Amino acid sequence: MAQTLEQRRRNAKFAKEQEARMGKSDDQIKQRTKETPKAPISPVWIVVLGFVVFGGLMFEALSRIFS
């Protein structure tokens, strides 16, 4: 059975990672594979929160200017 495009991509990525690991000790590999910390809140909710806060400030400023 032929590989799908997704399988080929993943196999190539895996082969590249394995090639980069060749000849290195476990300590060197562990230092390289640090995971980036993930934000506790998604970017969508940050945008919504910013819209609510800054939108409220803008509405308040406009209502004070034109009243």
From TrEMBL:
Region Disordered, annotated ranges: 1-37
GO cellular component terms given for this protein: endoplasmic reticulum membrane
Domain of life: Eukaryota
Pfam families referenced in this protein's UniProt entry, alphabetically: RAMP4
InterPro entries noted in UniProt: ER_stress-assoc (IPR010580)
TM regions (residue ranges): 44-62
Alphabetical keyword list: Endoplasmic reticulum, Membrane, Transmembrane, Transmembrane helix
Keyword Iron: no
Subcellular location per the Swiss-Prot or TrEMBL entry: Membrane; Endoplasmic reticulum membrane
Similarity-based family: Belongs to the RAMP4 family.
Main function: Interacts with target proteins during translocation into the lumen of the endoplasmic reticulum. Protects unfolded target proteins against degradation and facilitate correct glycosylation.
Protein name, per record: Stress-associated endoplasmic reticulum protein
Organism in which the protein naturally occurs: Metarhizium album (strain ARSEF 1941)
